[in-house]
Amino acid sequence: MSDRAMDAANLSPRSAKTMEEAKILYHKKNYIAIPVVDENGGVVDLFNGSPRSQKRRRKPLNMPVVINAGGRGTRLDPFTKVLPKPLIPVGDLPIIELIMQEYQSYHCDSFHIIVNYKRDLMKAYFADNENRYNISWYDEEKPLGTGGGLSLLKGKLQDTFFFANCDALLTANYESMVRFHKENGNVITMVCAYKNLNIPYGVVEMGANGIIERMQEKPLISFLTNTGIYIVEPEVIDDVENDVAIGFPDIVEKQRQKGRKVAVFPVSESEWMDMGQLPELEKMRVKLFGA
Question: Is the pLDDT of residue 193 over 70?
Answer without folding.
Answer: yes
